[in-house]
Amino acid sequence: xxxxxxxxxxxxxxxxxxxxxxxxxxxxxxxxxxxxxxxxxxxxxxxxxxxxxxxxxxxxxxxxxxxxxxxxxxxxxxxxxxxxxxxxxxxxxxxxxxxxxxxxxxxxxxxxxxxxxxxxxxxxxxxxxxxxxxxxxxxxxxxxxxxxxxxxxxxxxxxxxxxxxxxxxxxxxxxxxxxxxxxxxxxxxxxxxxxxxxxxxxxxxxxxxxxxxxxxxxxxxxxxxxxxxxxxxxxxxxxxxxxxxxxxxxxxxxxxxxxxxxxxxxxxxxxxxxxxxxxxxxxxxxxxxxxxxxxxxxxxxxxxxxxxxxxxxxxxxxxxxxxxxxx
Length: 327
Hints:
The protein is mainly α. Helix content is 68%, strand content 4%. It is built from 13 helices and 4 strands. The protein has a two-stranded antiparallel ribbon. α2 packs across α7 (187-207), α6 (165-183) packs antiparallel against α7 and α6 (165-183) runs parallel beside α8. The longest helix has 27 residues, at 2-28. The chain is globular, with a radius of gyration of 19 Å.
């Protein structure tokens, strides 16, 4: 446990140092998110926060094993290779979108390729356990795993519409998943989450309302991707499989938002017919109907909205930990 604590603290320290530098560089380059439209902020804000979070996470994972080699198993690096390869794809397309803009379909295609990389490495949802009964998925493991990874990746991107929301939810959910991974003996995946949570917590210093820097797609997409993929390891591997309700509780908020978004955007509009092309176009159209937008419309302040959604995530995560089967 000491190793993971050192990893998280080191990542946090690096994020505290890197975030202001990235923010100033982003502003100088004009890479800012302007207010207006569906945005809830009132002034231009740097949108390259993902560079700081990911940079701190990666640097901590490289440096800490050298500081505490007696606590680190070098075999972990081979387990981390698919995470590094697939994560680089997600981060790359997100960063390109932050800098130049990328259409929704190239991003979706990249996410599917990244999911395929993880599945080819053996990371699959092969069974689902509900109420003590387990069902083997067979060939359905591939499409279900793809939907889980791509869905949760985009879920964190969708809730990244308010200062500190995606970052704080990621820190809470990542902490819960990290505890499960440590207890169930998955050091590689736990290492990823310890570094990621540390960086996210430190980034909140600059990202909480009023934010001076945003995650951007490079940050929100990669956070969602890493949480989705590391969760599968704790869910599927071990002497016993976790009940499906455990990861669903931990990620209830972003999953609920993405599911309601699909239902809302997928409905016919103005009583007209809905073709496949129209449905696909509607699915990628932004709106102001997400959970946080609805709470703001009720007259809640941004800080109150974010804190309440934090509390919901924390309570559900604690409930998931209480019901999880761990050694």
